[in-house]
């Protein structure tokens, strides 16, 4: 996770077939677990198909993953995170709208969670990646089913320059503990999970989330005010679950 940095400029070097095959396998697994419709393309002149990005200037994006969904309930997220842990030892789109109902909140959280799983796999393959929102991305190499829309996209490839360093708030501002418990007294697995969550990508490094430990050792997570807050929440939940391994997180 610490190796993941936002990379917006890429070289023309093709991504190896073996790496693409691995990503296709990961996407198949993520789609099965989440009911999302995630898709990948590689080797295009412009994998963003000319659409402007909501934030950030990208260059040389020949490969991308489209994070697409139609909205559904949040599934059991722990299995995919535990699998990853074994490897770790302008105009607005739907992605930029504030989540205003339970279905949209669930969709954006899922996109953050499973998009982060794929982002981490990309980094494990020795590549660079960055999240992006494409404004009004209705037509392109991706396919949309009934009611589906692209929430976010992941650019990936060989970095043309190193990514930016992580900036983070203090852990005390991002977690909530049972009354009377100090951060230093939190279980080791929770502290490790929080350390991982603090590395999660969020828009403008706002970190709009709070992860709460309850006395029965269950955990809850909520979004706070911020841009694309529920996508960022999903990313943080993914990293938290991976960081706590081999502990099994029970989410409320």
TrEMBL record:
InterPro entries referenced in this protein's UniProt entry, alphabetically: Nitroreductase-like (IPR000415), TM1586_NiRdase (IPR029478)
Pfam families for this protein: TM1586_NiRdase
Species this protein is from: Bifidobacterium tibiigranuli
SUPFAM superfamilies per record: FMN-dependent nitroreductase-like
Protein name as catalogued: Nitroreductase
Transmembrane segments: none
Tree of life domain: Bacteria
Putative nitroreductase TM1586 domain sequence ranges: 1-69, 103-243
GO MF term list: oxidoreductase activity
């Amino acid at each position: 996770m610490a190796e993941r940095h936002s990379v917006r400029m890429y070289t023309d070097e093709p991504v190896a077939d073996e790496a693409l095959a691995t990503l296709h396998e990961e996407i198949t697994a993520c789609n099965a677990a989440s009911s999302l419709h995630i898709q990948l393309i590689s080797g295009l002149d412009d994998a963003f198909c000319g659409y402007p990005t909501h934030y950030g200037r990208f260059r040389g994006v020949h490969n991308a993953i489209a994070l697409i969904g139609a909205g559904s309930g949040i599934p059991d997220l722990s299995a995919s995170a535990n699998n990853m842990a074994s490897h770790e030892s302008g105009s607005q789109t739907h992605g930029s709208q504030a989540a205003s109902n339970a279905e949209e909140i669930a969709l954006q959280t899922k996109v953050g969670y499973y998009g982060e799983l794929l982002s981490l796999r990309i980094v494990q393959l020795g590549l660079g990646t960055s999240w992006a929102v494409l404004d009004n991305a209705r037509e392109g190499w991706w396919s949309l089913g009934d009611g589906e829309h692209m929430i976010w996209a992941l650019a990936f490839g060989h970095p043309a320059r190193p990514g930016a360093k992580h900036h983070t708030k203090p852990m005390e501002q991002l977690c909530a503990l049972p009354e009377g418990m100090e951060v230093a007294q939190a279980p080791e697995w929770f502290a490790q999970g929080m350390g991982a969550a603090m590395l999660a990508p969020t828009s403008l490094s706002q970190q709009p989330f709070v992860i709460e430990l309850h006395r029965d050792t269950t955990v809850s997570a909520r979004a706070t005010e911020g841009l694309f807050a529920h996508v960022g929440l999903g990313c943080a939940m993914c990293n938290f679950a991976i960081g706590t391994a081999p502990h099994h997180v029970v989410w409320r």
